[in-house]
């Protein structure tokens, strides 16, 4: 290598228009810029510029029909503070996220513990529980909408055990329950797989040693397994919260935010204001609110990741 | 402790089983009794365990099953009470109507070509960027990587309003361009870049150094040395990108207005009668046609699917 660098004449003769060592580094850097250019320019054009525009637009009012774009100061922000729908929408968003995360994580953990053994047919069951993850989201939602009809499959099943089921999607509280159910069963398989991987990382020797010392399965689980997989649980927790804030298709297909505004979460409200009512300025304010919530959650996630890095590899 | 008492209550029963009954007073005998007892209760426990799993799997499996069989039922049977687990008079009526009521073949093609194009584009862009961020040193690299990571931080729902306005100004509303461009170059591809970078970081660098001494340029090293080794990472990227685009709903709803431009998720929701009531058998037939091919591929390539999607879950 040193001989190569020190004999530019030799290299020049081997390659017409030969390069000096410095140019070699430069060429490498140029390659680096060219390699990352599509991605970096794409992010700039489709993420950074729009993000700046959200802020800019939140101070403006854009009337599509009249094609006017006017500066309105903080009017959109004032509207947000005075909007009587904001409180219920935020409450709905919070209830939805908490319910979703609670049931998703508990069920995923339960399934992972149950399926973390080598028995005949275990892989088959893992496949079954994972399968909704790959079913088209809207198709999955449509089937559940079908099952949740007043005379649909869910009430049919309830009738068999003598329960007169509600008209799920027509009443506020049950509509919320329905949306949560649809989303939980759709994605629990993903968290289950993450937990399974974490459980398989718990050293067998530790559990054996505890068993030798007379610890029962419950003690082993709460005292040894849980602490060891807690980083995965925490991260999954935050990923699932952020995901729950982005739930849109399920609500648009299942309830359109209704009945009333009982299932209108922030993303759906934003979509409604901007794209159904043409309130782009106000929609921008709602986008900013969504961004701030996700930002806080992500920063928390990063801080936690710094504390518990050992799960990463 | 518990095992001891279990032995204490059992000896009579075990002893009665034959001349070769193990002696509970020797270590070997105790072990034999323990094994026998646990064998018996283990079978029972296993049956219960499988039963519990089967019951728990109902809400995971039943909807898909229900979608498929209901799509084959005539409209008169679809809400029959009690529900029929298998169509009494199977019919492909719903399937035929799905194509008659909307340009469903065109919509299917739209979804397919958009998903394939975005997936291929993402694999190319992400593997190039991921490789450069992992291997090449250039000034400003860390800053540029941070810029890319911002894409992970910002949900696409946050930027949909200004993106709509940008594309509206450019006259690209009601075309596939916004979906193609934003999905390939924007936020959705960042996760892919991140995963490719992680993968290339884990590759031994010696291979590339040898190639560099042989005078290969970066593009050749990337294409001829690094990429052929990146199969697993590329498969993961391909799977989660394809599924993400195949399922995209908000963006098509915002950008597309003409039925012949719709993608499948959007089209599925439009099977209604003149009064806005849902035509369930048609809708479920279309849903089946949307979901089933992906499910089949999943069953064939489970390992890659689970690994690929788990990666996107962890890093996302």
From TrEMBL, chain B:
Domain ABC transmembrane type-1: 108-301
Region (Disordered): 1-24
Pfam families found in the cross-reference section: BPD_transp_1
Membrane-related topology note: Multi-pass membrane protein
Primary location class: membrane
Keywords: Cell membrane, Membrane, Transmembrane, Transmembrane helix, Transport
Cell compartments where the protein resides: Cell membrane
One Gene Ontology cellular component annotation held by this UniProt entry: plasma membrane
GO terms under biological process: transmembrane transport
SUPFAM superfamilies, A to Z: MetI-like
This protein's name: Carbohydrate ABC transporter permease
């Amino acid at each position: 290598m040193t001989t190569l660098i020190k004999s530019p004449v030799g290299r020049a003769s081997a390659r017409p228009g030969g390069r000096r060592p410095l140019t070699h580094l430069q060429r490498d850097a140029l390659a680096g810029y060219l390699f990352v250019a599509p991605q970096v320019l794409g992010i700039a054009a489709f993420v950074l510029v729009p993000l700046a525009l959200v802020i800019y637009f939140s101070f403006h009012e854009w009337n599509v029909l009249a094609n006017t774009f006017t500066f309105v100061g903080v009017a959109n922000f004032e509207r947000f503070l005075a909007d009587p729908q904001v409180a219920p929408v935020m409450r709905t968003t919070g209830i939805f996220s908490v319910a979703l995360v609670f049931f998703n994580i508990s069920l995923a953990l339960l399934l992972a513990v149950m399926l973390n053994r080598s028995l005949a047919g275990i892989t088959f069951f893992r496949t079954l529980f994972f399968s909704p993850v790959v079913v088209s989201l809207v198709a999955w939602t449509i089937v559940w909408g079908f099952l949740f009809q007043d005379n649909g499959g869910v009430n049919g099943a309830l009738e068999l055990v003598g329960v007169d089921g509600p008209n799920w999607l027509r009443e506020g509280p049950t509509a919320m329950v329905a949306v949560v159910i649809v989303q939980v069963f759709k994605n629990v398989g993903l968290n289950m797989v993450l937990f399974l991987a974490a459980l398989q990382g718990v050293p067998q020797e530790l559990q054996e040693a505890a068993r030798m010392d007379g610890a029962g399965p419950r003690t082993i689980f709460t005292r040894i397994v849980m602490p060891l997989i807690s980083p995965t649980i925490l991260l999954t927790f935050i990923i699932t919260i952020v995901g729950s804030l982005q739930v849109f298709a399920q609500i648009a297909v299942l309830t359109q935010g209704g009945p009333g505004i009982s299932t209108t979460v922030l993303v759906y409200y934003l979509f409604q204001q901007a794209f159904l009512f043409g309130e782009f300025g106000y929609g921008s304010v709602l986008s900013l609110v969504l961004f701030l919530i996700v930002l806080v959650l992500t920063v928390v996630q990063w801080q936690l990741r710094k504390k518990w890095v050992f799960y990463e590899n | 402790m518990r095992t001891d008492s279990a032995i204490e209550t059992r000896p009579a029963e075990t002893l009665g089983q034959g001349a070769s009954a193990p002696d509970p007073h020797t270590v070997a005998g105790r072990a034999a009794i323990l094994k026998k007892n646990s064998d018996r209760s283990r079978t029972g426990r296993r049956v219960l365990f499988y039963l519990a799993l089967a019951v728990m799997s109902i809400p995971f499996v039943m909807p898909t099953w229900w979608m498929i069989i209901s799509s084959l039922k005539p409209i008169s049977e679809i809400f029959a009470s009690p529900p029929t687990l298998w169509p009494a008079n199977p019919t492909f009526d719903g399937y035929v109507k799905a194509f008659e009521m909307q340009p469903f073949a065109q919509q299917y093609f739209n979804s397919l070509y958009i998903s394939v194009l975005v997936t291929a584009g993402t694999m190319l862009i992400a593997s190039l960027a991921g490789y450069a961020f992992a291997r090449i040193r250039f000034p400003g690299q860390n800053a540029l990587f941070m810029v890319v990571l911002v894409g992970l931080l910002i949900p696409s729902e946050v930027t949909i309003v200004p993106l709509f306005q940008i594309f509206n100004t450019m006259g690209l509303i009601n075309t596939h361009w916004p979906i193609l461009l934003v999905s390939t170059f924007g936020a959705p591809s960042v996760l892919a870049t991140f995963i490719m970078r992680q993968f290339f970081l884990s590759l031994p660098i010696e291979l590339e150094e040898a190639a560099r001494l042989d005078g290969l340029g970066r593009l050749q090293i990337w294409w001829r040395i690094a990429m052929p080794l990146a199969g697993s990472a590329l498969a993961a990227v391909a799977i989660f990108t394809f599924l993400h685009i195949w399922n995209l709903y908000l963006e098509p709803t915002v950008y597309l207005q003409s039925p012949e431009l719709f993608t499948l998720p959007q089209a599925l929701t439009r099977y209604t009668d003149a009064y806005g009531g849902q035509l369930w058998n048609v809708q479920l037939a279309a849903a089946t046609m949307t979901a089933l091919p992906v499910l089949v591929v999943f069953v064939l390539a489970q390992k890659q699917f689970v690994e690929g999607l788990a990666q996107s879950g962890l890093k996302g």
